[in-house]
Amino acid sequence: MWWKHTVIYQVYPRSFQDSNADGIGDLEGIRQRLPYLKDLGVGTLWLSPFYKSPMKDFGYDVADYCDVDPVFGTLEDFDRLLKEAHGLGLRVLIDLVPNHTSDQHPWFLESRTSRDNPKRNWYIWKDPGPEGGPPNNWQSFFGGPAWTLDQRTGQYYLHLFLPEQPDLNWQNPEVREAIHEAMRFWLRRGVDGFRVDVLWLLAKDPLFRDEPGNPEWRPGHPDRLRHQHLFTEDQPETYAYVREMRQVLDEFSEPGQERVMVGEIYLPLHRLVRYYRAGCHLPFNFSLITEGLPDWRPENIARIVEAYESLLTPWDWPNWVLGNHDQPRLASRLGEAQARVAAMLLFTLRGTPTWYYGDELALPNGEIPPDRIQDPAALRQKDRTPAGYHSLGRDPERTPMPWDASPYAGFSTVEPWLPLNPDWPVRNVAVQERDPQSILQLVKRLIALRQEPGLLLGPYRTYRARGGIYAYLRGEGFLVALNFTDRERALELPQKGRVVLSTHLDREEAVGETLRLRPDEGVVVRLS
Ligand code: NOJ
Ligand code: CA
Q: Is 386's pLDDT higher than 80?
């Protein structure tokens, strides 16, 4: 059950390390940085897509599921990376993007040639609606209708994302088998599993009904939010598709060497947990991102943790996430002082944590000048949001990893594809390696401390969630106390103990009945 005891670290390959001076990160660059990841203490890497792709959505538009894009390297580079990672005891998950392909994928190129092409039914084609427009009112996540007319054959195809990302028809068993074969291709190469892109969107309403309006939508909000997604999300057929994928993983699993599925699923908790029943090992629990960070108060966080814990059966293993390549940076949402508190929370809750590259430096959102915007989500909807580009764009959380003070922060030897954060000369790995109180050191200490059986396995129990303090017990042995305020606070402990770690990294000491917390301080107490 290695996946229950690991820490997952997400690498966005374009932005981790460039090895060939083109300003874009690549697989060989990641390989060179494996010692850093090993030293950080994480156990598992999740690599965002590096497949052959026209890069309209930076790799989430796949043109070949079984090859590496030249920008990232070659299959041999991947094999070398995997072998070396395994040699260091690191597991590797890759991103599987089964909901859609690139419009340049040979399957789609064939599918669009004629209405009776054998691959026609691999995608979702429909006649125009009664007024000659799109077949129904479904909206794309990236703005505008989710349907594009193909002039030549006079039908519309569905794309929940870009027009260059046509949705596969998961109702078609041939499609499912083709994706399973792609999974086997990588499983045979030795990957430890997949992070599955938009798992909750795979199935669509078989009747293609219009979605009802969302009363909360206002002009300026993203188009996708115009409707309530009764017919494009979390459809009942999805669970069978998940079960089948799980079977493919199980073909390659052995005791202690499970191949695992981490699912990208943005759903309320009571619906999220159904994906455990379908066989997904770790359905991503985004509740801290969606509900916790926007309302960062002890009462709210305790409510989220308790709600989630209460929905899990003894067979479901929890997981927690604070950031990814689609979300604003943690440090920009909370500030560095509370980002440290959030890190302590993430690594001491029960369940597998997923960490986003650069958050260990408290990397803030990047500043992207308008002429350097890359993200299609920003470019397509810029005129539709009052706040302009930045409210929808994901470039700010995808800026290059700053490694040291050499030109281009050691990321590259040329100008990177996205600008470095302006503070890179002082906020980088080398600086924080030298600083005994940096957030990087804190993250290392937290990951190491997590190996304690009490923190790894002990049950969770809320101890206090008010007055600016959130404190909880993990098993019999540990109490975690987090000060969400910038004022001093005191907490009566259930028994004496010892502070074994502070977010300030400056004390390890015995404590009596009263624990004093400094502003923005979190501590782990080993109870005696
Ligand atoms: C979710 C991914 O995380 C996001 O980056 C991507 O744009 C969409 N899925 C489409 O694949
Ligand atoms: Ca490169």
A: no
